[in-house]
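Lecture 7, part B: from sequences to assemblies.

Below are the input chains for today's worked example.
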Amino acid sequence: MKSKLLVLYKREFLSYFNITAPYALLLTFLLLSGISAFYFENFFTRGQADLLEFFTFQPWLYALFVPAITMRSWAEEQEKGSIELLFSLPVSTKEMVIAKFLSAWSFVALALALTFPLWLTVNYLGNPDNFAIAASYAVSLLMAGGFVAVGVLLSSCCNNLLLAFILSFAGCLLLNLVGINLLIDYLPSWISKDLLIILKEFSVTYNFDAINGGLVKFSSIFYFLSLIIFSLAANTVIIDRKKVNG
Amino acid sequence: MESKKLKNSLPGLVLVYLAVGFLLLNLLANSWLQRFNFDFTENKLYTLSANSKKISAAVNKPIMLKLYFSKKIAKTYPYLLDYAARVEELLFEYQKFSNGKIRVETIELGPFSGAELQLVNDQLLGIPVEGTNEELYFGLAAISEKTKEYIPFVEPNKEAELERTLSAMIYKVATLDASKYAAELKSIAKREDYARPLTKFKELQSYTQTKYQVRTDALTQKLAKLKEDLAAVKTERANTDDQTAQQLAKDEELIKLEMIVTKAEVKAVKEELNREVADLEKNIQLLTIGIVPGFALMLGFMLWWQRKKSCGEPVAL
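Predicted structure of the full complex, as structure tokens:
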């Protein structure tokens, strides 16, 4: 079982490097990361050796970047019909789902890892709290996992690449938006404030903002992990249904 | 037909169960584990020192810690928002170690929260915000049944002493036994490591500045000397006959011209300095942002090349 998963994973992961689009996406992600770290709020006028701006912007960057990576995972297979081939193979749905998820997550992890020059620069310019930055990177990876799981799930609902991208983008954006006050201010007033606060706790931005200073809430980690697990479970259910119904 | 319908509805039901399970589990986690945190900072900024823990554990009557903060008005001051978040976390730390005796409440003082504002107006210090007629409040109150203690405004530049101040407040309001906890209160250390300035960048900046300082100094010296010359020529002209005076007047014009040139030079040097300082920022930014995609491109090229060499075809199952 392990080796089957490994073969599937390898195939999925390497497929990202066969076409040009992921490279362009990777470049865009890295450029925007750098720009967010320095320009959004002037890094030098703030004068603090940390990556606060970079991490604050990251949920929004992922909302754009991750759907573009995950849109292919199931939608393309369904568009081309190669999913029938996949179904005929002696692998369980669970293995397929996990392989698709892990490969996309690895690609996003690679992109995240390539932002290391930012970390080097703040270390050169000042004396940052590297423990806090390391923790932020770790939770950022987990957050990316949450987005990837949602993206793969929504991709399985579509049989068209563009539709998959738009749907996943909307889903990821929604996960971000419920956490910001801007949206909450515009919601009608008959929705009770308590409900809005509860709603906020289900957003990625809320759960990720708190860790920026190096303080990681257990509930945030739980949120991201459960987001991954439940999305993958739902994904398995949907693919199983497709397998049965054809 | 029947069986197909069943097959279709069953996964839908499972999906609903999954969604509900996700929501419920997270609600539980949020309400029970709200204050269950891991502090990953190098110097444990969000963790109370042992002495403060002892003090908060010794509290034996209910105490209310109230943080008054105008969050909406403070939005234009990001550092203040960060600081308020840190203060709040610290307050919750006290709550965590007090066996339920200390309670924390955050109150947002907006422009229209009249009643609360009236109540605390005598104790809290509102800082007028530039450009608006609003006042920014960022105060703290420790309230027990008998006594109240206030910090009118939590000053961001006193963050190093914050924990000591808070512990002292709680200690006072809870009327703890002075002989027992005085030593603990005294030995709560100052913390200087909240701010992490860009030291190396400032060094680079000041290095550039000193480099230009030498040039400006030379120019100002020259200017002073020219002024002296001018004065000397003027006095000389007053004491001589007409013909030499004409000659001296020409000299005077020349000196004046040179002074204008030197002044322009000083200005140019200053502009150059400003430009170089700005360039310093720009170069650091461009270098960092440029290295990132550069690495990505290199990695991509290597992978592409290796794949082309090894098979040239996508990996088949």
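Note for the exam: The longest strand of chain A covers residues 215-217. Keep this in mind when comparing with the next example.
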